[in-house]
Amino acid sequence: MIHDYWIFIGVFAVFFFLTVSIYLFSQNQKFKVKNAKLSTANKMIQKRLNEVQLEHIGTKLNPHLFKNILNSVQSHAYQTYMSLDKLANVLDYILYESNNKFVSPKEELNFALSLIEINKIKVNPLFDFRIKSKINKSDEIYEEKVFAPLLSVDLIENAFKHTDFLASDSFISIQLELEKRIFTMKVSNKASLKNVLEKEKSGFGSQSLDQRLKMIYNNFYTLQKSSKNGIFTAELTINLGDFYDKMRYS
User: How confident is the model at residue 204 (pLDDT cuts 50, 70, 90)?
Assistant: First the structure.
C-alpha cells in the first residue's frame, strides 16, 4: 500500500513537473513573440522619428546654405564671373541632389570643392589657404550611393566663418581623402576669439552635423574636434565601405 502511494506521488510529481515546464515554455515562447513584435514596432517608430528629424534638419540647412552662398557672391560681385560655373554646380546639387537620402562620394566631393571655391571669393589672394585632395577615383565606392548629401558643408562653412583673417599667422587648411573605402575630411583654421564666442551661442550647423552623423552612420564614423593655441581642428572619418556592406546585406 505504501509502495503504491509513493508510486502515485512520483507519477504525480513527474506529471506536475512536465505540466509546469510545458506551461512555462509556452509562456516563454509567447513572451519572445510579443517581445519581437514590440522590438520591431520600436525600430519602425525610431526609424520614422529619425527620418522626421533629418527632414527637419534639411529644411533648416538648405536656406541657411543658400544665404551664405549668396552673401559670398554678393559681397564680391566683381569676381562673380570667375565662379559662375562653381555656383551653378553648388545650386544644382542643393536643389536636385540634396533631397536624396544618399549620393555618391564623387558627387559630394565635387560639391565640396565647388563650395570651397565660392567661399574663397571673400578671401584675400595672399591669405594662407591650403587645400589638399587625395581621392582614389578607382575606389569601389567612389560612385556608389553611400554618402549623405551636404555633410561637408558644416566643416567648410565654420572654417571660413570663424577664422581670424586679420591675424598675420592666420590660415585655413582643408584636406579631403577617399582611400580604401574610407572618407576623411580634416579642417583646421586659426580662429577668432570673438567668432568662437558667437559660435558657442548659436552654432546650429555643428549640432545638426552631429545629429545627422549619429542617425545615419551610427558606429561607422568618428568626429573629433580639438583646440590648441587658437587653432581649431575638426576631423571627420566615415567608414563608407563597411556602411555600404551593411546596407547591401541587411
Answer: very low
Residue type, 39: S
Tell me the pLDDT tens digit for each residue of 53-111. 445 445 455 555 555 665 655 555 555 555 666 777 777 887 788 788 899 999 999 99
Same domain, 153 and 237: yes
**Length reported for the chain:** 250
Helical packing angle, 153-161 and 204-217, nearest 10°: 160
Structural domain count of the chain:
2
Residue 94 lies in a domain: no
Question: CB of 181 within 8 A of CB of 140?
Answer: yes
Contact 148, 101 (CB under 8 A): yes
148 with 215, same domain: the answer is yes
Measure the N-to-C terminal CA separation of the chain; round to a whole number of Å. Answer: 66
Angstrom CA distances, 192 to 113, 177, 203, 229, stand at 24, 27, 15, 11
Provide the domain limits for residue 31.
3-59
118/234 same-domain check:
yes
Q: What CATH number is given to the structural domain containing 149? A: 3.30.565.10
CA distance 188 to 162: 11
Q: Take residue 200 and report the three cell numbers written for it.
A: 558657442
